[in-house]
Amino acid sequence: MKVRILLTCLLIPFACAIAAEPATTPKPMTTTDGPEGTVIVRDMQIATVGDGMPLLVDLAYPKTASAPMPVVLCVHGGGWSGGTKESALRVDLAAKGYFVASVAYRLAGKSLWPAQIKDCKLALRWLRANASKYNINPDKIGAWGHSAGGHLVSCLGTMGDISSLDADGPFQGFSSKVQAVADYSGPTDLEVYFKHNPPANLFGPQGKGHPEIMKDASPINFVKSDDPPFFIAHGDQDKLVPIAQATTFADALKQAGVPVQLVILKNAGHSLGGAKTDPPCTPTSDQLRAMSTAFFDKYLNRISQMNSQISTGWI
């Protein structure tokens, strides 16, 4: 059923899908207390993209933290054409001392590739441009995403030096590279993934006749030795994104000399244990969350929150 849903989304007729995006009034920003001593900010506008569309982020950060904080940018899934930034915000990382942002990138159907990755890169540039304001470490930024979000963060990890993807939007001159990537269930070779069902709503009708467009959106084709460390998690029962998308990508990274931690979850489907499985998946979703946190701790040098705590009332 999940495969049918995704393919239906991907095959939306192009003529109906790419109507110009009208300028919209952004949602009012809200700030509330979150769990475990965190603050949650919803719907902060950081820029405008396309035809005046507001680019929004959600934030989560600890009320008190040692300076400067490492950062994790969260990127939601949803077949590139759905999903929300709210669902991807990892407040658990904020509770452990991270400054966390989740970006509402432009969705496929209204916006063709590479709008999605450009918006993610813009969010990274915004974070670095405001590093002193938010008391964050611009040299320690990671990215986490699931499914389509896993694809996009893998692109961030392998395409950080492609200047054309940074050509649009403000905060030019700031880097959009990341120092660590956690990819959950993400497709990494789109030419193979969409061999029989090209994603018309992501690439438009030209995607079917020009597979090189999909090659240019596939992180596996941009692996190089100076890519950041990767944490890759995939379910051995994933019927939506074949497990080979993870294992082949991990092998390519290893061959290039990039540090890789590949976690194959037994009995897990595409959601990686988000729903109950019988038998239970191994490791569990809680254990996987702890493993990815330890990965970020290692490569982003999380500073202990026990000493030199200061107020983080920046927003």
Summarize the structure.
This protein is an alpha/beta fold and 315 residues long. The chain has helices at 2-10, 14-17, 85-88, 91-94, 115-129, 131-134, 148-158, 190-193, 200-203, 206-209, 211-215, 244-255, 285-300, and strands at residues 30-34, 38-49, 53-62, 64-65, 69-75, 99-103, 136-146, 180-184, 230-235, 260-265, 310-311. The chain is built from 13 helices and eleven strands.
Question: How many distinct beta strands?
Answer: 11
Which segments are poorly predicted (pLDDT under 50) over 5 or more consecutive residues? 1-23, 304-315
Helix/strand/pairing class, anyone?
Answer: alpha/beta
Supply the CATH architecture: 3-Layer(aba) Sandwich
Distance between the termini: 43 Å
Number of domains: 1
Which sequence of SSEs, written as H and E, runs from N to C? Answer: HHEEEEEHHEHHEHEHHHHEHEHE
Query: What is the CATH superfamily?
Result: Alpha/Beta hydrolase fold, catalytic domain
CATH topology category name: Rossmann fold
Shape: globular
Please give the CATH class.
Answer: Alpha Beta
Strand order of the largest sheet: 1-2-3-6-5-7-8-9-10
Q: Helix coverage percent of residues?
A: 25-40%
Strand fraction: 15-25%
Q: So what's the oligomer here? A: single chain
Q: Give the C-alpha Rg.
A: 19 Å
Tell me the number of helical segments per DSSP (H or I, 4 or more residues long).
Answer: 13
Average pLDDT works out at: 87
Largest sheet: 9 strands, mixed
Describe this structure in words.
- The protein is an alpha/beta fold.
- The protein has a single domain, classed as Rossmann fold (3-Layer(aba) Sandwich).
- It is 30% helix and 23% strand.
- The chain has 13 helices and eleven strands.
- A nine-stranded mixed beta sheet has the order 1-2-3-6-5-7-8-9-10, sandwiched between helices. A two-stranded antiparallel ribbon has the order 4-11.
- α5 packs across α7.
- The longest helix is centred in the last third of the chain and has 16 residues.
- It is globular and about 50 Å long.
